[in-house]
Amino acid sequence: MSTHRVALVASARYPIREPFPGGLEAHTWQLATRLRERGHRVTVFGGAGSDPALDVHEMAPLPPLSSHARSDVSMPADWFLAEHHAYLSLMLDLAAPDAPYDVVHNNSLHYLPVAMGPSVPRPVLTTLHTPPTPWLESAIRLPRARSGPRFAAVSRSTAQQWRGLVPDVRVVRNGVDTAAWPAGPGGGTPVWSGRIVPEKGPVEAIRAARAAGTGLRLAGPRPDRRWFDAEVAPLLGGDISWVGHLDHAALARLVGSASVAVVTPCWDEPYGLVVAEALACGTPVAGVARGALPELLDDTCGVLAAPGDAAGLAAAIHAAARLDRAAVRRRAERFCSVAAMVDGYEALYDEIAA
């Protein structure tokens, strides 16, 4: 493998630091760190307040707008305009002929790195972390955007959703550092972890745990506090609790202590980093068969229920608790390692930079 100078484009909206706002930020931190350990020169472009160890180049903040601009009836939300300005500025900088990179790896969810990728004189690789969204799909539909940058997807199911637009998409599954997610003793109350938002299904997980009579500990950030207070908080109490937004070490201990990890996507989950984290801890998964979960789990490490089947998910919680934790851990080591993920990206960098 050759070593490369990599411009890694991350989220402009959320900082890349613990406790991570979501799986994308955790993935970006892991990828940047591991690539550097292998000798690559990685420059991360991301949001303010990121982990100082990553030496993130903060993207350009939105400059003050005139009163005339702000009074315009079409004025979008500040966060939307700030993201637009940040990525527009960055892509114009990367388009400079003397930009000191061999590869630009777009790890964001924004449309501008895709739409403006053909203007960059270096190879551009975009990882597709989501199913098609209107903004991203419209950018990829531009003929030059499809024929210029290369694309990877984080799972076979995500790749399949994009193949109508991007036929040549490489699958590079996300990975976790299995040493940083050590096998735990299990036996404790089941756990649900992730961003506490509707599409992740915390309400569905709580209802299934109540039906199973097992209790549930929820961990993760609450980006929409109003929704949390209205929909999740009233369901808490007794053996159902929210334990907070935990840092990496505390979350690994929590997941490792659980008899089961409950994973309840209400959308086509592109990958499900929480699945890989649970498997690394030796904690079997009771999940909903959507998105990438059926390709990450087999009958040695998880039990799946059909979407919307609360009784089936309750039964899955009991069935998953009987699985062998050593076999669960082995699945993570073979199928979900960060080393395999970095191998995949190194191969792609070599290919597109050749």
TrEMBL record:
UniProt xrefs under InterPro entries: Glyco_trans_1, Glyco_trans_4-like_N, Glycosyltransferase_grp1
SUPFAM superfamilies linked to this entry: UDP-Glycosyltransferase/glycogen phosphorylase
Keyword set, alphabetical order: Glycosyltransferase, Transferase
Positions of the Glycosyl transferase family domain: 193-322
GO molecular function list: glycosyltransferase activity
Every Glycosyltransferase subfamily 4-like N-terminal domain range: 21-179
Origin: domain of life: Bacteria
One annotated GO biological process: carbohydrate derivative biosynthetic process
Protein name per its UniProtKB record: Glycosyl transferase family 1
Organism this protein belongs to: Pseudonocardia hydrocarbonoxydans
